[in-house]
Amino acid sequence: MLEVTGLVVRYGSIEAVRDCDLTFDTGTITAILGANGAGKSSLMKAISGLVPAAAGTIRIDGEDITALHAHRRARLGISHALEGRRLFHSMSVDENLRVAWEFRHRGNDFKTASDRVFERFPMLATRRKTPAGLLSGGQQQMVILSAALIHEPRYLLLDEPSLGLAPVIVQQIFAAISAVCRDSGTTIILSEHVAALALSVAHQAYVLKQGKVVRKGAASALAVDASLSAAYLGG
């Protein structure tokens, strides 16, 4: 279980996350919803250690990890796929996956790990020697998700995985996200601007507004709440 208590994130005088309490149960998908600027990305970065917490605690299975650097959190099983397609564009699919693999592992099991990736996304298998910059947006997102999953993390943080993608590719990406949680027991934290899409795969959800948690509950209940979008997810 991953627990966030009283979390505050500041950028200078700007408080991006304010006194947030969240719990992420093992083997579930949690949606983090909110309008642009609500604090979703800052929350995710604080969990993975990319930005410091100004206050509050972050715990994994009761262990306080708030002071740990990002690379040490990664070794505890936290993997974070950031918003935007952050790849080495001149490097091939295989080479991008190799970089992700060697961040955590140095051994001869890369082929086995990459074969699992290509089983999940067969479309990439035929493009494994292609520079990432020549892939479609959907294929690039598949590489990013594969790089985040290649070392089988316990906790997977996904920031806006549907952004800019065609609907058919979005369906494939979200089917893969559901399968990873179901088959591997990975705990997934999903920040997503399309609320209906995130709620369709999530078990629970939190809604942020101006850095604070303003709604929480079962995803199925929030999905049928007609007031949700107008009240909290607008611009």
Describe this structure in words.
It is a single chain. The chain is of the alpha/beta class and 235 residues long. It has helices spanning 40-48, 70-75, 93-104, 110-120, 122-125, 137-149, 167-184, 195-201, 219-223, 227-232, and strands at residues 2-11, 14-24, 29-33, 55-60, 63-64, 78-81, 155-159, 187-191, 204-209, 212-218. The strands form two sheets. It has a six-stranded mixed β-sheet, with helices on both faces. Helix 3 packs parallel to helix 6. It is globular, with a radius of gyration of 17 Å.
Key traits:
235 residues; alpha/beta; 6-stranded mixed sheet; 4-stranded antiparallel sheet; 10 helices; 10 strands; globular
Distance between the termini: 32 Å
Kindly estimate the percentage of residues that lie in beta strands according to DSSP: 25-35%
Mean pLDDT: 89
Question: pLDDT under 50 segments (min length 5)?
Answer: none
Q: Rounded to an integer, what's the Rg over CA atoms?
A: 17 Å
Q: What is the string of SSEs from the N terminus onward?
A: EEEHEEHEHHHHEHEHEEHH
DSSP strand count: 10
Shape: globular
Distinct helical segment count: 10
- Describe the strand arrangement of the main beta sheet, using strand numbers: 6-7-8-3-9-10
